[in-house]
């Protein structure tokens, strides 16, 4: 199994906005991720799709050259997808009464990693993004409050 990545640098969007789109494709099959990006109504989705296509082409090229075998995009999984903050361009905008406001034009570096899908591994294709978030409501409900812990301690004595 190998992992190949592709990076697009200096995209004119914020890393936070790019991260919202990347969250949709993380862990999915490459072919499913392409179709998700195709119908996502965010402008950064086109740039992420371009980066994903580059990563797939890199993987096919590496498998062809180094391992002497054919690889299809159906065999690949998006193993990692993240957006790093790039340099911020600072511009000045005229404001009332002779003042000036600063405008921050953010950029981002998008990285998409694809890996060969292992035999027998399960790929999450239909899982909702809310269920995979760190602070999901199911994780919060399972924690006990301090009052409940106090009652449990008194009962155990």
Under CATH at level 1, the class stands as Alpha Beta
- Helical stretch tally: 5
Backbone shape: flat
Order of helices and strands: EHHHEEEEHH
Radius of gyration: 22 Å
Proportion of residues in β-strands: 25-35%
Instruction: Kindly report the CATH topology.
Output: Ribosomal Protein L22, Chain A
If classified by CATH, what would the architecture be? Alpha-Beta Complex
- Which structural class do the helices and strands define? alpha+beta
On the 0 to 100 scale, the average pLDDT is 84
How many β-strand stretches?
5
Give the strand line-up of the largest sheet: 1-5-2
Main β-sheet: number of strands, strand sense, barrel status? 3 strands, antiparallel
Q: Approximately how much helix is present in the residues?
A: 25-40%
Query: How many structural units, i.e. domains?
Result: 1
3D structure, described in words:
It is built from five helices and five strands, in the order βαααββββαα. With 157 residues, the chain is an alpha+beta fold. It has a three-stranded antiparallel sheet with strand order 1-5-2. A hairpin with a 5-residue loop joins strand 3 (89-94) and strand 4. It is flat, with a radius of gyration of 22 Å. The N and C termini lie far apart (54 Å).
